[in-house]
Amino acid sequence: MKHINIKQRDLFLNEAPYTVEYDFSRLKTARDKVYSLMKDSKWRTLKEISLKLEVPETSVSAYLRDFRKTKFGLHTVDRRARGKRTYGLWEYKLTENISYED
User: Fold this and answer.
1) Which terminus of the chain is less hemmed in, N or C, by CB atoms within 10 Å?
2) Crossing angle of helices 57-66/46-53, nearest 10°?
C-alpha cells in the first residue's frame, strides 16, 4: 500500500462531508429517534440511548445539545453523574418544552 502524504487542509478541498441530498433525512431520522425515546423524561446514559436506537454515542450527545436550542424546541436537558462521580459516567434526561411554538 502506497503512503500518501496529505495535509489536514487538503481534506476540506474534496466534496463536503455533509450534503443535504444524501444526509438530511438520515440525520433528521436519527434526531427524531433520540427525541422520541427521551421525551419520556427517563434518565439514560449515552451508551444506553446509542444501543437502543443504533445511533452513535457522539451523535446522541450532539442531538441532546441540539434540543436545548431554539431551533429544536428549547427543551431542558439535564445531566447528572450515575454512580460515583469519579467514574465519569453521566446520564441525561429531556424535559419537553410544551409551551414552545415554532
Assistant:
1) N
2) 110
CB-based contact 37:53 (threshold 8 Å): yes
For 83, residues 6+ apart whose C-beta sits below 8 A from its C-beta are: 89
pLDDT tens-digit readout, 45-90: 999 999 999 999 999 999 999 999 999 999 999 999 999 999 999 9
Radius of gyration of the chain (CA): 17
Structural domain boundaries enclosing 79: 20-95
Residue 82 lies in a domain: yes
Output the pTM of the full model.
0.73
